[in-house]
Amino acid sequence: MYICICNAIRETDLRQAAVSCEGDAEATYATLGKRPNCGQCLDEAQEIIDEERAAACCKEFAL
To answer: What is the pLDDT of residues 9-45, one digit of tens each?
Structure first.
């Protein structure tokens, strides 16, 4: 599913970038070589980023 139509950022790409970047949605977009255009996706993108980082954190503690 596309999260950002303006930049053609898919949810899977965003989730992968979320664990390699410590910043907010805009910083995560930058790791993908993109930047927000209209900004309508930023809230949803941030929720996905937070979710992915929380899951990654739980995986670290489970090991």
So the answer is: 999 999 999 999 999 999 999 999 999 999 999 999 9
Can you give the chain as a three-state secondary structure string?
A: CEEECCCCEEHHHHHHHHHHCCCCHHHHHHHCCCCCCCCCCHHHHHHHHHHHHHHHHHHHHHC
Residue of 37, 27, 41, 4 whose CA lies nearest to 53? 27
17, 20, 58, 60, 63 from 26: Cα distances, Å: 11, 14, 24, 25, 30
Q: Does residue 27 contact residue 18 with C-beta atoms inside 8 Å?
A: no
